[in-house]
Amino acid sequence: MAATIYHWALHPWAIYAVLALSLAIFSFNKGLPLTMRSVFYPLLGERVWGWPGHLIDILAVFATLFGLATSLGLGASQAGAGLNYLFGIPMGTTTQILLVIGITALALISVLAGLDAGVKRLSEINMVLAGLLLLFVVIVGPTLAIFTGFFTNLWSYLQNLPALANPVGREDVNFTSGWTAFYWAWWISWSPFVGMFIARVSRGRTVREFMVSVLLIPSMACVLWMTAFGETAINQLVNEGYNAVADAALPLQLFSMLDALPMSEITSLIAIVLVIVFFVTSSDSGSLVIDAIAAGGKIDSPKPQRVFWCTFEGLVAIALILGGGLTALQAMAVSTGFPFTILLLVACISLIKGLSSEPKSV
Fold first, then answer.
1. Mean pLDDT value across residues 61-65
2. Residue 35 has what DSSP assignment?
3. Angstrom distance (rounded) from CA 316 to CA 291
4. Contact 74/275 with Cβ under 8 angstroms?
């Protein structure tokens, strides 16, 4: 659980916070376009409008594109596993590709409907479904273990953080250079997409309000979610002798855990819908962000341009599924996340310069 919190809570949100705060400061306070190149204005000056700025935006587009394609491929894999569990639909490449096509088609409808009519409504549906599923697991699962586990898992995370963050001398090489590296690259590749959305909804907030809202609240929500599902699965194994989750393939583990709880067919169907809607909202909102970056910060670009990015996203996900499945998806996230990591480190210096020039009240 400490490793799970390490991968999913404070650290990814810190990555998003750096970029979101940078975009917000340089767009809303400095009057620059809401795009990646604006973040580097204190370091590059007017050169951000030339080839260095073009290169920065291109890297942001590719990082976001392949990060979203990775997510789309992983989501199709899990949704396909759920359909196999519920309806016996074969778990294969064909099913995953059909799911990607379906998710992309729904995302296209949402993109064409616009931010308020499409993305906003789907996001609200997604939040309601996630809240209902979480509440169900907390109530029918090991409720006491979940509530106590929330605090013990946080404490375990703090205790194990130095060891988790230090790869030197560790024997679990696959963990440090496999999943951990993949997660960091995945979050970094998502940072232009998530950062721009956070920046757009944070106008008028102080930096302190921004940091609390972006770092602490989402992190605690992630800890609660991971604790509810993780403690339930651990309790099933340790106290009930239920081995199905431990023995199941990665995409099937969620459904194996729900299978031991009441109304498993209903909750599994909700989980499948939740996974699909989550990746539909990710695809449509991500397409809008990629489109805005490619258009130099404009948020009212032509709809055919948005359709192109949304479609291309789905095609990349299909290519990665055909090219090697999970291994190809992980490799692509790492490949695009690494160069953008360098940009993020430089962006930290630029952000400090930007904040230093702000009034003290900020």
1. 87
2. S
3. 16
4. no
